[in-house]
# Entry
Amino acid sequence: MKLLTLEQFIEKHILSSNDTVGYLAQHQLFDQIPELKKDICIPEYCCLSKNDETFSEPDINAWFGPRGTITPLHYDPKHNLLSQVVGRKKILLYSPEDSLNLYPHDSKMLHNTARVDPQAPNFQNFPRYKLAKCYQCILYPGEMLYIPPKWWHYVKSMDISFSVSFWWE
# Structure
């Protein structure tokens, strides 16, 4: 891993024909560059909560990278509203009911990440994956996708892509 300024990242991984893939993933860009946060409007949907007394601002993360970047199959413990700003993303979704069919890692650190690769599944090692029901969508600029807590999702950028995610409890 190498520390780069945003300008260096764009020059090296977006604008050049460099073969190295860089992905700004789950990055708190808006905390680092507060001026950019002025361009972000928190959707009202993120303010819905079972208990108004425990409401807090959602976590806002940036996802920026070239075509072909991947977020492996995993789930998050919070509500997630994924907003597509630039480019398209292919998203595969699986219900929490399919967790055993997705073969989560045994370790505490990766318990929310699947061992199976949905784009190239090894059915010999992961035979139950055939039983998992997959929902697919393509997210276009200006669209948002709500991902409920503990729903498994795999994301692949189809183009140079910039997304913003809002996570809340």
